[in-house]
Amino acid sequence: MNQISKNPDADAPRDDARSASKAAFLRERCVVPGGSMRAASWFRPYPSYVGRGEGCWIYDLDESRILDCANNFFSLVHGHAFPPVIEAIKKKLGGGTAFGLPTESEIQLAEVLRDRNPQFEQTRFCNSGTEAVMHAIKGARGVTGRERIAKFEGCYHGAYDWVEVSLAPKPGEWDDADGNPRSIAGNVGAPASVLSQTVVLPFDNPSRCEEILEREGPTLAAVILDTNASRAGMVPVSRETAGVVQRACERHGIILIVDDVISYRLSVAGSAPLYGLHPDLITTAKIIGGGMPIGAVSGRADVMSVFNHADGPPKVSIGGTFSGNPLSMAAGLATLEHYDAAAVDRLNSKAEALRGKVNASFAAAGVPARLLGSGSLFRLHLTTKPVTDYRSAYADAALSKVYAKIQLDMLTDGVLLTPNCSGALSTPMTDVEVNVVSELLTKHTRRAMDAAESA
Ligand SMILES: Cc1ncc(COP(=O)(O)O)c(C=O)c1O
Question: Of all protein residues, whose CA lies closest to atom 3 belonging to ligand 1?
Answer without folding.
Answer: 157
